[in-house]
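Q: How do we represent a protein-ligand complex in a form that can be generated token by token?
A: Start from the inputs.
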Amino acid sequence: HADPLPVHPTFFAGRDSVVIAAPAKLNLFLEILRKRPDGYHDLESLMVAVGLFDTLEMRAAPNGAIALTCEPATLSSGTDNLVHKAATALRTRANRPDLGASIHLTKRIPTQAGLGGGSSDAAAALVGLNQIWKLALTREELVAIAAFIGSDVAFFLSLPAAWCTGRGDVTTPESAALGSGTDSGPCFVLVFPPVGISTVEVYKRLAVPNEPVSGDRVRAAYRARDAVALGRAMFNRLEEPAFVIEPIVDRIRKRLSQLNAAGAMMSGSGSTVFAPCRDAREAQSVAAAFTDSRPADEPESRVLVVHGFTP
Ligand code: C5P
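Then emit the structure tokens for the protein with cytidine-5'-monophosphate bound:
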């Protein structure tokens, strides 16, 4: 018996075309356990999807070509784009080099932001193309391809929340979910500093801890949907090296933290900083206070309020 396929919001599904939304993620907890012989790091992370989405419009094409277009057009649509990698890896795995597709990616999730945007796009491509190419691969088969594309891709096949181990690619779904747009559950203020951070650079400067922090407290707070307890328990080992690379991100985090009862933290390898709030009203007022109190010598950041994501 195969696992159910991941639930991405689908706006349109035709016979040979589909439009799928790819959510951003936040790391509410991220601890590094050890450096591995293959150069990656074993980690533990609580990842949750939030209501900020790229969209992928996919249509099967008869000519065996994979054609990607992106919006904004400044984004790479070449073979280095993870959507391209996903499409190629999927048809290779299915032994079907004849399959083609035209894919249009609308990008809303900032890049180099610690939000997993590229990984989420890749996962959505796997799900969508599996459908329109009628390959009927199981979730487990898609997960195996996902791990080959990037460490975070598997998470986006475990929506809306998961406890992630290994190099991030071993996921245990969290049954509890934060609020969606339809209720008054926890929300997040997202701050996008005007600088991106390279994941590779962050890992280069990382000091692996002798005694890793436990994620038990943050998991309990998450399950209780308690934004303030979540804020007290949240932890990210990658903050320290990221703040060395871009001190402005720490400055922004400190200022946001002072404005919010539950504090603030960086997501993943940065540069996005987020503040968990009890509800949308509180999040809107924290966001407004953050924008209004910006010192003249701090560069302007884009600010957004998002809900947790429930399929
Ligand atoms: O897997 P992905 O290609 O997204 O990882 C990007 C880089 O981040 C890797 O090349 C590696 O340097 C670092 N990384 C790591 N340990 C992880 C995930 C990523 O060292 N668990």
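The mean pLDDT is 94. Residues 10-173 form a domain with the Ribosomal Protein S5; domain 2 fold (CATH 3.30.230.10).
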